[in-house]
Amino acid sequence: MSTQSIILVLDLTGVFAFALDGALTGVRTARVDLVGVTVLGVTTALGGGIIRDLLLGQTPATFQDWRYIVVALAGATLAFFLSSQLQHLATPIQLFDAAGLSLFAVIGATKAIEVGFGPLQAVLLGTITGVGGGTIRDVLLNRIPVVLSANSRLYAIPALLGAGVVVLFDTIGLGSIWFAVAGALLCYCVRVLSLYFRWNAPPPPGAPPA
Amino acid sequence: MSTQSIILVLDLTGVFAFALDGALTGVRTARVDLVGVTVLGVTTALGGGIIRDLLLGQTPATFQDWRYIVVALAGATLAFFLSSQLQHLATPIQLFDAAGLSLFAVIGATKAIEVGFGPLQAVLLGTITGVGGGTIRDVLLNRIPVVLSANSRLYAIPALLGAGVVVLFDTIGLGSIWFAVAGALLCYCVRVLSLYFRWNAPPPPGAPPA
Amino acid sequence: MSTQSIILVLDLTGVFAFALDGALTGVRTARVDLVGVTVLGVTTALGGGIIRDLLLGQTPATFQDWRYIVVALAGATLAFFLSSQLQHLATPIQLFDAAGLSLFAVIGATKAIEVGFGPLQAVLLGTITGVGGGTIRDVLLNRIPVVLSANSRLYAIPALLGAGVVVLFDTIGLGSIWFAVAGALLCYCVRVLSLYFRWNAPPPPGAPPA
Q1: pLDDT interval class at A161 (50, 70, 90)
Q2: How far is it, in rounded angstroms, from Cα C171 to Cα C161?
Q3: Can you tell me where the transmembrane regions are (chains A, B, C) (predicted)?
């Protein structure tokens, strides 16, 4: 399997995870119908990648390859029918979200390096790609995005670490798609551990205790 | 009249309708002054087309042709002075919004086909163009966008149908600007009928009744 | 110092001012931790310029030059540690915001002229660049953007004036970076005076008094 094929598989897996995440979050937090669930799933799934490609100066992959739209629609539709089983379960939503975050962060960083962005810029672009879909989801649902909220545990940090692994190994001359996989696993584990152990970043000095 | 001229006229008509829609919605739902009304009208009017052109990889038409800005400003200014007559009337706002939705959906699909996007992608781009302006309007007004809300009747579906007509006839080799006009009329009628007859998409299985 | 160097210095100064503004606003209005403060500062600082460059059809300066990211991070980090001194003081936040607004408005207009946009389009792009960062900040904080709110005094108008000065002097053949500096000073003064003297734009005719 070529590197491009592996990136495509990882990217589509992220799209699917974010489609489930966005659609289930819609069912759980707002009064949405079939159309609303689908719109939210598709937007969450495709939003991060579209932002990534616009910032890279490329036609979004979503519009070049029909499989992105089909996978996003499949995830959103599946979530619609599963929602009565899953809607009270916050955990599956968080795991799907962590998967999308991880995969998109490392693919964003990988594509930024391919285009010739510097290391700092590649880490930023990977982080934006990772947190982008969930941020659009939360803005559309009219709530403060997970990436900002102090009650959401670590979210930008895992994405930064995942993108950072990709960029670090590329910078020292060991660029390989397998470091993207390793970065995604690191991001996923840090995100899930932060949820489980309730890790938070420090509050501003002088802020009242939570 | 050439096809390009017809597209321009339809596009500017959509801009004008969305400018009225955005500005009047601002007066109706928030405490906004002349500047706020104008900003909201112009943003609603130009937002969908700007998103469309960025996704197509083009310089937004708004910045290539001064008439877009002038038409948007004219619509917003007119709405400001008409608002005391119209602000309690939800119906004109909904009709302006339906007009903008319809025109932008078919123009988005038409431009996507011109650029060489596949059928599925062209339908998605048309739908995004149609619902984009109203979604920006609602995000700025800090409320859940019409495209997501189960109480807003059908909104993405008519845009999808309008864009779908354009793409269908192009795919079978009958591409013509008149199918864009037909698609816009279909979108407009379905949207208005859904408002009148209170059509909604089905809720998620197991969701509590409305 | 070349014109390009002056533009870079002004741009980075705007980034720094908006990073302080966004980060301090986060501390003041939401429950955010170190990560949330940083994300909000960086997003406010870099958002306007990224929108500007996307609309100009260019790779965002943020991703071409690492100094943008470093300056944004420095401003956000500084704000985090200063926040216990500054968080109850609305005035510094408003002055940083006015500085970012002014600098970004004139740089946006300058870059639009360089790319060959018409006068009206250059004024619009400058205004969008000026108000963009603060609008993203407010959308992420789930509140109605300053640019729309009637209680926020003049905000889009000063940006429009600043961008207008740049475009006016360029149109009459006197283009010079010093008119950008003059435009920024005009924008800054009008914004600050409108805060001090509580200037507002007129409400819609027939609207109830404030």
Answers
A1: very high
A2: 15
A3: 6-27, 34-51, 66-83, 95-113, 175-197
d(CA A80, CA A39): 11
Interface contact A27-B149, CB threshold 8 A: no
Taking only residues 144 to 183 of chain C, the set having a beta carbon closer than 8 angstroms to any beta carbon of chain A reads none
Does the beta-carbon distance from A121 to C81 stay under 8 Å? no
pLDDT tens digits, one per residue of C122-180: 999 999 999 999 999 999 999 999 999 888 899 999 999 999 999 999 999 887 889 99
Question: Coil, helix or strand for C83?
Answer: helix
State the Cα–Cα distance between residues A68 and A71, nearest whole angstrom: 5
Polymer length of chain A: 210
| DSSP letter, residue B204 | P
Nearest residue on chain A to B57, alpha-carbon basis: A59
- Reported ipTM: the value is 0.93
Round the average pLDDT of chain B to a whole number and report it.
93
Q: Are B136 and B47 in contact (CB under 8 A)?
A: yes
Q: Coil, strand, or helix at residue B173?
A: coil
- Sorted by where each begins, the domain ranges of chain A are 3-196
CA distance linking residue A14 with residue A8, whole number of Å: 10
Distances B205 to A32, A37, A52, A83, A116 between C-alpha atoms, Å: 12, 12, 34, 7, 48
Cβ A97 vs Cβ A186: under 8 Å: no
pLDDT, position B209: 57
All residues of chain B having their beta carbon less than 8 Å from the beta carbon of residue C150 are 31-33, 36
| Backbone φ, ψ for residue A205 (5° rounding) | -60, 135
In whole angstroms, what is the distance from residue C8 CA to residue B64 CA?
A: 26
Contacts of B80 in chain C (CB under 8 A): 204-205
Closest to B100 measured CA to CA, from B123, B70, B133, B61: B133
Residue A209 has what pLDDT? Answer: 57
Give the C-alpha separation, B190 to B182, whole Å: 12
Band of the pLDDT at A85, cuts 50, 70, 90? confident
What lies within 8 Å, CB to CB, of C192 at 6+ separation is C94, C95, C98
Contact A83, A27 (CB under 8 A): yes
Low-confidence residues of chain C, pLDDT below 70? 86-88, 208-210
- Residues sharing a CB contact under 8 Å with residue B171, sequence separation 6 or more, in sequence order: B119
pLDDT per position as a tens digit, A15-46: 999 999 999 999 888 888 999 999 999 999 99
Residues B184 and B175: their CA atoms lie apart, in Å, by 15
